[in-house]
What does this fold into?
Amino acid sequence: MKFHLEAKVTISARTVVEADTLEAAIKIAAGRATASWEPSLNDEEVWICDDVDGTPFDIESQTL
It folds into this structure.
């Protein structure tokens, strides 16, 4: 049998923000999209996910 499963995974991500305070930088960063790394991406515009280092959790059957 084959089972189609879904899971959540936490991974590391990075971004660069220019701001006057840490609080302002966090607010700006919170509104950014995430993206898988590729050479054309700018880490000053998105969260870069270049190391999929997480562990799956909340694994369940996928509804087809």
